[in-house]
Amino acid sequence: NDIADRIFRGVETVQDGVHEALFEPVIRLGVTGLSRAGKTVFITSLVANLLDRGRMPQFGPGTAITAAYLQPQPDDTVPRFDYESHLSALSGPEPHWPESTRAVSELRLSFKIRPAGLLGGLTGLRTVHLDIVDYPGEWLLDLGLMEKSYAEWSAEALEAAGARSEGASFLEALAAVDATEKHAEPVAKTLSQSFTAYLQSARANGYSDCTPGRFLLPGELDGSPVLTFAPLPAGEAPRGSLHREFERRFEAYKREVVKPFFRDHFSRIDRQIVLVDALGAIHAGPKAVEDLRRTMADILAAFRPGRVGRIMSLLGQHKVEKILFAATKADHIHHSQHPRLTAIMEAMLREARDRADFAGASTMAMSLAALRATVEETMEHEGQSLDVVRGTTETGKQAAFYPGELPEDPSHILSPARKGADKWLDGSYEVMKFRPAKLTLRPGEGPPHIRLDRAAEFLIGDKL
Ligand code: GDP
User: Fold this and answer.
1) Of 263, 289, 315, which closes a domain?
2) Same domain, yes or no: 230 and 313
3) Same structural domain for residues 112 and 131?
4) Which InterPro entries match (predicted)?
C-alpha cells in the first residue's frame, strides 16, 4: 500500500511538473550588476510595481493581468529574496535603503492573465510565473577565469595591481614573500588578505574588474582555503611550496566555486537585466569609465550563445533571449539629462557588442531609477537657470543639487583623450547621497520610479 501510495504521489508530482511546463510558462529573469549597482532596490521596486500596477503605464500586459501574487519558489535550496523586509525598509515611517545583495537569491511572482481577443472570455485565465534570480555581477565576471591558468591570471592580476595606486601595499607585501618556500598558512593568509583589501579599495574607488568575485562577496565561503590565495609572479616552484599551493587553490576555486554557480543558476536564465552605476563611474573619472567599458564587454561575453556550455562542458544551457543594460539612479540628475545618460549607455553597449563579438540575444540600453528619491526643480543661480534635483540627504535635511551636465556627445566621455575634458559630474555629485523619500501610496500604486515600466516591458512584456 505504502509503495502504491508513493508511486501514486510520484506520478502526481510528475504530472504537476508536466502541467506547469505545458500550461504555466515560467520566465527566469536574471538580475545582476556589480555591488551597489542597485539590484536589491530594483527587484524590490519591480515586484512592488508588478503587484500594484498603478505606476506602470508603459508595461503593456498591465491591463490584461487580473492578479499578481508571490508564491513559494521552485528551488528549495536557494535563499529567498527577502522582499518583505526590503520593502518595509524602503516604505516604512523612517525610510532607509535595504541591505545589498551578497549572494544568490530568488523570488517567484505569478500572474493570472486574461487572454486577448474573442476567445478571452471562453478559455479562462492563464498563469505565468516570473522567477527572479538575483546574483552578484562579480560572480559573473569569474567566467573569464575558467579559461585562464594560474600563471595567466597571475600575470594579468599583477599588471592591474601595478597600474592602480590601490595595489601598492599588496605589491609591497608580495615582495617580502618567497613563494618557493614551503607553504605556511599564516603567510598565505596575510598575503591573501592584503590582496583582498586591495581589490576592495579598487572597487570602492570605481574599478569594475576585480576578480576573483568571491574575494569581494564571499558568501558562505569566507575564510575558506578556496578564497585564501593571491597572484604570484611566474617562476619554478618545488612541490609543497606556497606557489604550488596557490595554484592548486586557484584551480579549486574554478572547479568548486565558479562552475557550480554557472551550472545551477546562470545556465537557466531566459531574460537578463544588467544594472550599471554609470553615473558613479563617470563621476569617479576616466579610468573607472574605461574599466566599466571593458567590464560591460566581459559581462556580455558571458552571454554569448553556447559559451558557458563550452567552457563548463554543460549541456542544455538556455539561450538568453533578451539582455537589458540599465544605468541606475537616474533620479540623481534632472530629466533633461536623461537622454544623454541613455546615449552614453547605448554607446557603451554598442562598443561592448563589438568587443565581445556578440550576436544572439536582443539587447537594449536605457537609464532608470528603480526608486525615485528626488524631485526636480529649476532654480535661478547667478542670473542662470539651473535644472536641479532635490531630496533628503543622509543627515535628514532637504537639499537641492546641481551635479553638472553630461556631454551631448557620448564620445566626450568615452574617448576623453581625444576630446580634452576628463571630468564630468562635479564635486556636488560626491555628496548626493539621498535617503529614500517618505511614501504615501494610493491604493493600487507601487513606489515611484523612472522608466521601470519600460524596463519591465522590454524584459517580460512579450511573454505575458
Ligand atoms: P546592490 O548591491 O546591487 O544590491 O545595490 P542596492 O540595491 O543595495 O543599491 C545600492 C545603493 O544605491 C542603495 O543603498 C542606494 O543608496 C542607491 N540606490 C539604488 N537604487 C537607487 C535609486 O533608484 N535611486 C537612488 N537615489 N539611489 C539608489
Assistant:
1) 263
2) no
3) yes
4) YcjX-like
Q: Phi-psi category of 425—alpha, beta or left, where left has phi over 0 and alpha has psi -120 to 50? A: left
Question: Among all chains, which residue has been given the C-alpha cell 574554478?
Answer: 254
Residue 235's domain comprises: 141-263
Q: Looking at residue 463, what DSSP letter applies?
A: G
Q: Ligand 1 centroid vs 278 CA: distance in angstroms? A: 12
Q: Are residues 159 and 147 in the same domain?
A: yes
Residue 296: which of 325, 334, 322, 261 has the closest Cα?
Answer: 325
Strand pairing report for 105-113 and 362-367: unpaired
Q: What atom of ligand 1 comes closest to residue 39's alpha carbon?
A: 3
Model confidence band, residue 118 (pLDDT cutoffs 50, 70, 90): low
User: DSSP string covering 177-192, please?
Assistant: --TTSBP-HHHHHHHH
Counting from 1 in the atom list of ligand 1, the atom nearest the Cα of 97 is: 14
CA distance 328 to 365: 11
The C-alpha cell 505569478 sits at 110
Instruction: Clarify whether residues 116 and 163 are in a common domain.
Output: no
User: Looking at 236, 263, 290, which one is the last position of a domain?
Assistant: 263
Predicted model pTM: 0.91
Residue of 208, 329, 368, 439 to test ligand 1 pocket, by largest number of atoms within 8 Å of CB:
329
- 405 and 421 in a single domain? The answer is yes
In whole angstroms, give the CA distance from residue 296 to residue 213: 15
For residues 321 and 382, membership in a common domain is answered with no
* CA–CA gap between residue 392 and residue 381 (Å, rounded): 21
H-run or E-run covering 24: none
What are the residues facing 389 on neighbouring strands? Answer: 376, 401
Q: Are residues 195 and 245 in the same domain?
A: yes
Q: What ipTM was assigned to the predicted interfaces of this complex?
A: 0.99
The domain tally of the chain equals: 3
The grid coordinates of residue 228 equal 585564501
Q: Does some domain include residue 329?
A: yes
244-263 CB burial, b ≥16 within 10 A, e <16: bbbbebbeebbeebbbebbe
Measured from CB, residues less than 6 Å from any atom of ligand 1 are: 33, 35-41, 97, 100-101, 328-329, 331-332, 369-371, 373, 434
What rounded mean pLDDT belongs to the chain? 90
Tally of helices (H runs) and strands (E runs) in the chain = 18, 10
